[in-house]
Amino acid sequence: MSGRPEILFPLFSAVETLQGVGPKTAQNFTQMAIETPRDLLFSLPYSVVDRRLRTTLNGVDFPGVVTVEVTIGEHRPARNRGGAYRIHVTDAETDFQLVFFHGRSRYLEAQVPEGARRVVSGKVELFDGLAQMVHPDYMVPLVEASEIPGFEPVYNLTQGITQKTMFKSVRSTLTRVPELEEWIDPAQLAKENWQEWHQSILSAHNPSGLDDLDAQSPSRARLAYDELFAHQLTLALARQMERKTRGISSRGNGILQAPVLAALPYKPTSAQSLAIAEISADLEADRRMNRLLQGDVGSGKTLVAFMGLLVVVEAGGQGVMMAPTEILARQHLEGLRPLAEDAGVVLELLTGRDKGAERRAKLAALKRGDIHILVGTHAVFQQDVEFNDLRLAIVDEQHRFGVRQRMELAEKGRGADVLVMTATPIPRSLALAQYGDMDVSVLDEKPPGRKPIKTAVISTERMDEVISHLRHAIAEGRQCYWVCPLVEESEVMDLTAAEERFKRLRAVLGEGVVGLVHGQMPSKDKDSAMAAFQSGETSVLVATTVIEVGVNVPNASIMVIERAEIFGLAQLHQLRGRVGRGSAESTCLLMYQAPLKEGGRKRLEVLRETEDGFVISETDLQMRGAGDMIGTAQSGLPRFQIADLERQAGLMAVAQSDARALLAIDPGLESPRGRAARVLLWLMRQDQAIRLISVG
Ligand code: ADP
Ligand code: MG
């Protein structure tokens, strides 16, 4: 399919081709991202005005829109400039006034001469006990009364686009809406009682009451489904494409896993075991794995990843694990090395810091296959990093990893299996939208014995109290993170805040007890600050949000977050997740600067009430909306125009399985339904999918 199907041409022409739309209106439309009649079609009304004809004003609640047949009475032109021009009118039972500001007699006398019969429609208000309709929306002879829609859809507008323009342009578009072959599974269509697309789009623009504007109304639900289905079809095509690339089959024999499991001071949770099994099965299959491992902070993703890496090493291959920051990469190395040693596995670290001879030696060892597992930052994917036999690439803690980046990563690893790990619990609907092309393993269980984290919300005014408590806690051998606020988008401001806090705490708690770590520090200093905290040499670690992701110091049991009210929910949840990892009772103090605004108060309350990452992320989604939650641009998450991710999660799941099912029986979209689905992809501007079909 080389180009857009002809049947869609009328919808993709310029808006100027619509009746009554000139270059100026077209220009104004672009402010609303409306460039073609198609775009108008998908701008659905958000409200509706009842303009059904009544016999009289009597019985109407004012103010309200009324449509009524009247006899025009006496004209009373304005007495002074800017005054009101009034026209007395009578309906079947009562009388009222039409009011015009700047009304010109000549015009009005021609339009509505005394004695004429007219149908008028507009908002009626009581003014000094007198009913009046100011600037009627409609004022037409009886023969034209049918021009007034019984229910008038109300659209979003922009500068230079009036309700009338919008209405007329949409009407003109509706006359050219083609009838399209059905792309929805007939069973789904029947089950939901949906109408065909053509009818649904007409109904959506012809609401006959507020009920029709509800997302659950059949026409809207169907159109929302179309949107979700098109998106899921795109993801399913990407997934199919990836699966076509032959993968490597790596079958483990347990010879490395067994000693590691035996050496662990704990047993894997059943969620971990299940994820390990799913990953092992994927590794063994000879198609490429493309899997997401989702697990809340502290759910033990690292062990799962490591078991996967051991499988490929057992099979004679190599693995790589990429972390977003140097601190994390180092921490993985330190956590995994003792385990690796138990099994005789060679683990090495590669970051941007490796230079010169040392780096060359590492690369050579990697190429020879002498390094089994490489851990590092994005440096592990530099051009000259070559593996002997790379079979598994793991990306840790990537919050913002879109479909495109995943495909790039898979390309670098040639046939290597890909596992993406994320600690950001995201609501199911978002997960499906963002990761619909992947298979998903979920760690929905925390390791046993974790104690709940006591979370308290405290005003900064009580800083002295907090510090004095902290002194006692430290004396008992506890450790504390102290996170300083992201005052502005500027690193410099962050730094001053962190450095000042560091000085103050050091002055109170003593030299050598307090460490400092922030993003701008030289890597060496960062490492030693982390190491000192990890080993218990320092008791307090003052930090900017560099510690947000992944840092693991089980003995740390106190988390203080300053100006918590300006952090996002997900971020606070991640930060708090740094404590509560050991056996000790943990505390999280969320300090705010009064007065608290509504949003900030609500966020802190949610955190105080629950530790469940999924509950927190659902709340976040409700408070912020989907687009905002995962930076849309980076995530590849589309902005849906009709579908409501917050409320239509169920439809998203159906769309995913339907899209996958369609491709399973018709991978090339050649069947009648497949061809119809191609038209949908064009209609929904799914360029990426269209490219995938044309190369596939
Ligand atoms: P995350 O999912 O946030 O990456 P980690 O992998 O860092 O979590 O694990 C958090 C902590 O839990 C680590 O200290 C780890 O050793 C420990 N842990 C992992 N799995 C278990 C388990 N099954 N039982 C007890 N502790 C575990
Ligand atoms: Mg982790």
TrEMBL record:
<dbReference type="InterPro" id="IPR047112">
    <property type="entry name" value="RecG/Mfd"/>
</dbReference>
<dbReference type="GO" id="GO:0016887">
    <property type="term" value="F:ATP hydrolysis activity"/>
</dbReference>
<dbReference type="InterPro" id="IPR027417">
    <property type="entry name" value="P-loop_NTPase"/>
</dbReference>
<keyword id="KW-0238">DNA-binding</keyword>
<dbReference type="InterPro" id="IPR033454">
    <property type="entry name" value="RecG_wedge"/>
</dbReference>
<dbReference type="Pfam" id="PF00270">
    <property type="entry name" value="DEAD"/>
</dbReference>
<dbReference type="GO" id="GO:0043138">
    <property type="term" value="F:3'-5' DNA helicase activity"/>
</dbReference>
<keyword id="KW-0233">DNA recombination</keyword>
<keyword id="KW-0547">Nucleotide-binding</keyword>
<dbReference type="GO" id="GO:0006281">
    <property type="term" value="P:DNA repair"/>
</dbReference>
<keyword id="KW-0067">ATP-binding</keyword>
<dbReference type="InterPro" id="IPR004609">
    <property type="entry name" value="ATP-dep_DNA_helicase_RecG"/>
</dbReference>
<dbReference type="Pfam" id="PF17191">
    <property type="entry name" value="RecG_wedge"/>
</dbReference>
<dbReference type="InterPro" id="IPR045562">
    <property type="entry name" value="RecG_dom3_C"/>
</dbReference>
<keyword id="KW-0378">Hydrolase</keyword>
<comment type="similarity">
    <text>Belongs to the helicase family. RecG subfamily.</text>
</comment>
<dbReference type="InterPro" id="IPR001650">
    <property type="entry name" value="Helicase_C-like"/>
</dbReference>
<keyword id="KW-0347">Helicase</keyword>
<keyword id="KW-0413">Isomerase</keyword>
<dbReference type="GO" id="GO:0005524">
    <property type="term" value="F:ATP binding"/>
</dbReference>
<protein>
    <recommendedName>
        <fullName>ATP-dependent DNA helicase RecG</fullName>
        <ecNumber>5.6.2.4</ecNumber>
    </recommendedName>
</protein>
<dbReference type="InterPro" id="IPR011545">
    <property type="entry name" value="DEAD/DEAH_box_helicase_dom"/>
</dbReference>
<feature type="domain" description="Helicase C-terminal">
    <location>
        <begin position="462"/>
        <end position="622"/>
    </location>
</feature>
<dbReference type="InterPro" id="IPR012340">
    <property type="entry name" value="NA-bd_OB-fold"/>
</dbReference>
<dbReference type="Pfam" id="PF19833">
    <property type="entry name" value="RecG_dom3_C"/>
</dbReference>
<dbReference type="GO" id="GO:0006310">
    <property type="term" value="P:DNA recombination"/>
</dbReference>
<dbReference type="GO" id="GO:0003677">
    <property type="term" value="F:DNA binding"/>
</dbReference>
<keyword id="KW-0234">DNA repair</keyword>
<dbReference type="InterPro" id="IPR014001">
    <property type="entry name" value="Helicase_ATP-bd"/>
</dbReference>
<keyword id="KW-0227">DNA damage</keyword>
<dbReference type="Pfam" id="PF00271">
    <property type="entry name" value="Helicase_C"/>
</dbReference>
<comment type="function">
    <text>Plays a critical role in recombination and DNA repair. Helps process Holliday junction intermediates to mature products by catalyzing branch migration. Has replication fork regression activity, unwinds stalled or blocked replication forks to make a HJ that can be resolved. Has a DNA unwinding activity characteristic of a DNA helicase with 3'-5' polarity.</text>
</comment>
<feature type="domain" description="Helicase ATP-binding">
    <location>
        <begin position="282"/>
        <end position="443"/>
    </location>
</feature>
